[in-house]
Amino acid sequence: MPFMKVRKLIAFAYLLVIIALAVFPFSSAGVSGLNTVHVVSFRLDHVLHLLAFVPLYPLVVWAWKPQTLRKHILWLMAGLIIAALAEYVQYFIAYRSWNPADLMANVGGVLVGVVLMGFYHWGKRYF
Questions:
Q1: Nearest Cα to 108, choosing from 34, 64, 66, 57?
Q2: Where do the domains of the chain lie?
Q3: What is the enclosing helix (H) or strand (E) of 38?
Q4: Among the four 18, 19, 53, 90, which has the fewest Cβ within 10 Å?
Q5: Which residues contact 101 (CB under 8 A, 6 or more apart)?
Q6: In angstroms, rounded to a whole number, what is the distance separating the alpha carbons of residues 106 and 47?
Q7: Are 103 and 81 in contact (CB under 8 A)?
Q8: What Cα–Cα distance (Å) separates residue 16 from each residue in 12, 73, 110?
Q9: pLDDT for 102-120, tens place per residue?
Q10: Beta bridge mates, 39
């Protein structure tokens, strides 16, 4: 299997993991403690939301190698939409709840991934 296809499969698999995490009933799985643990002044589940979405944009860039600024912006917009939809879909699931703080953490994770990719490319270019 060509390496580019493997990259795309990895990116799709990660996206499926994010979707599964968005719809899986954690409270009945004994993981409800995430809402009570605080990291600095943030709930642990908000930190985990942010961390879950950080790799999304770097994986897309690694898999599809966008060459123009327009394509980077399109992939960024797709990442932000996926981050929003991952939280929005929970509004329609009986055992999940929509939370605007989780939405902001999802979007923040995508943006952190974009910044990290920017630092990576900047460092690759100048060092």
A1: 57
A2: 3-126
A3: strand 38-39
A4: 19
A5: 43, 46
A6: 9
A7: no
A8: 6, 22, 16
A9: 999 999 999 999 999 999 9
A10: 42
Residue 51, token pair as written in the block: 């961390």
Phi, psi of 124 (to 5 degrees): -65, -35
How many Cβ atoms from other residues are within 10 Å of residue 64's Cβ?
Answer: 14
Over the range 73-96, which residues count as b (16 or more CB within 10 Å of their CB) and which as e? Answer: eebbeebbebbeebbeebeeeeeb
CA nearest to 113, candidates 80, 86, 84: 80
The structure tokens 């944009």 sit at 57
Q: Which two tokens stand for residue 24?
A: 């899986």
pLDDT of res. 21: 87
What amino acid occupies position 85? L
Among 78, 83, 97, smallest CA distance to 23 is for: 97
Region 58-83: what's the mean pLDDT? 94
